[in-house]
Amino acid sequence: MEVRISGTHFPLETLGPGQRLGIWFQGCALACPGCMSRHTWAPEGGTTEEVSGLLRMWEEALGRGADGGARGGGGPPHQP
Ligand code: SF4
């Protein structure tokens, strides 16, 4: 199964405690006022990634000492 992502980053140290794997999804139809992630709104932007690829990223981050994960958007609920 594929999902559309805007980007990933590790280590992310600003969106929660410790070092986290950050995953930003691509595509959001909510258009919240004041959204700071407007570059993630376009549903055809970003890149596609297999869920298995994201799981491999997670395992690699854990191996490098990840304390947790952070997901943002884009709207993760828009993904399958
Ligand atoms: S990316 Fe987040 S803040 Fe921005 S419009 Fe979508 S749900 Fe709202």
Instruction: Report the major sheet.
Output: 4 strands, mixed
Strand portion: 25-35%
N- to C-terminal distance: 8 Å
Task: Look at the helices and sheets and give the structural class.
Answer: alpha+beta
Number of helices: 1
Strand order of the largest sheet: 3-1-2-4
Estimated radius of gyration: 13 Å
Q: Number of DSSP strands?
A: 4
Which H/E pattern describes the elements? EEEHE
The level of helicity is: 10-25%
Could you report the average pLDDT, rounded to the nearest whole number?
A: 94
Number of domains: 1
The outline comes out as flat
Bound molecules: iron/sulfur cluster
Spans of at least 5 consecutive residues with low confidence = none
Describe the structure.
The protein is an alpha+beta fold and 80 residues long. It has one domain (2-78). It is built from one helix and four strands; from the N terminus they run βββαβ. The protein has one helix at residues 51-63, and strands at residues 2-12, 20-25, 47-50, 68-72. β1 and β2 (20-25) form a beta hairpin. The longest helix has 13 residues, at 51-63. The radius of gyration is 13 Å and the shape is flat. The model has no long low-confidence stretch (mean pLDDT 94). It binds iron/sulfur cluster. Iron/sulfur cluster (SF4) binds next to loops.
